[in-house]
Amino acid sequence: MELDREQWRRLRKNTPLTLTEEELEELRGVEDPIDLTEVTDIYLPLTRLLNLHFTGSRQRNAAVGAFLGEKAQPVPYVLGIAGSVAVGKSTTARLLHTLLARWPEHPRVELVTTDSFLYPNKVLEERGLMHRKGFPESYDRRALVRFVANVKAGVPYMEVPVYSHLEYDIVPGAVQVVRRPDILIIEGLNVLQPAGPTTLAVCDFFDFSIYVDARVEDIRRWYIERFHKLRRTAFSDPKSYFRHIADLSYEEATKFAEKVWREINERNLIENIAPTRARADLVLMKGPDHTVRRVRLRRT
After folding, report:
1. Smallest Cα–Cα separation from 245: which of 263, 227, 262, 272?
2. Which end of the chain is more exposed for a tag (fewer CB within 10 A), N or C?
3. How many angstroms separate the CA atoms of 42 and 285, rounded?
4. For 50-60, what is each residue's pLDDT tens digit?
């Protein structure tokens, strides 16, 4: 079913706002204008839905345990978030990570991005895949599936590689530790990709999935705006992989960004990411100003 913004906003009911403007500023992505009104109207109803869904999942697991005559251990709830580069899915993931952890039913929430499962640049270069970074084949999908399967199985301690956007590579020796969360959020471009006929995909372990959507021309504009913001900030860091871009003129940088968008990001979106939208349980449909205009919810 499809709901407009006002219909969706009313589904917040009495869900309290537990986020301050200062906290939101830390969660906001580059060139993402999200404000507390957006949090109140869109994300509070969403956290209410996810809380209800989480509770139902726990009850279902308990019912299966009762049938088997076992005292079942709580199974981590896995939430997948997909969408294009620059559409705002990372902000959505960070925001839900913070908001969901403030519900008493699930205080332990972990966020893992699929960037952590990109092959190191050395491997990508050896395989001739540097120009296809972000495409499905640039990820260690077996390691990602194995990680989520182990979390779902209740493995108490897991380590995940750490990816640096500054250095544009996996950080040698650095790990993120995941310890049996109540909710695990997996955010990435291709997390809703189906598996082959004899294999499992990471989305097979999701309890709920979200796709952040917008028109391609809007995402392209957001990408270029974000690129220029990074050119003035992060790219000027001597450690940045893109340090050379900070010295380009505005016109040169725009041409470079348009080329990267056209040859890599837009192509990946059209070929691999957008086709998975129909697999999501919920789609957040954004307008040109980055605000969510409509919400599409799968009822069954």
Report:
1. 227
2. C
3. 11
4. 999 999 999 99
Evaluate if pTM is beyond 0.70.
yes
DSSP string of 156-170, one letter each residue: S-EEEEEEETTTTEE
Cα separation of 62 and 22, whole Å?
Answer: 39
110-121 b/e (C-beta count within 10 Å ≥ 16 → b): bbbbbbbbbbeb
Residue 179 has φ and ψ, to the nearest 5°, of -120, 95
Give the C-alpha separation, 276 to 298, whole Å: 14
Query: Around Cβ 160, how many Cβ atoms within 10 Å?
Result: 19
Q: Which residues pair with 145 in a beta bridge?
A: none
Residue type, 87: V
Of the pLDDT bands very low, low, confident and very high (cuts 50, 70, 90), residue 127 is very high
Kindly report the length of the chain: 300
CA atoms of 281 and 279, how far apart (whole Å): 7
The answer to whether 77 and 151 are in contact (CB under 8 A) is no
CB burial of 46-81 (b: ≥16 within 10 Å; e: otherwise) equals: bbbbbbeebeebbeeeeeeeeeeeeeeeebbbbbbb
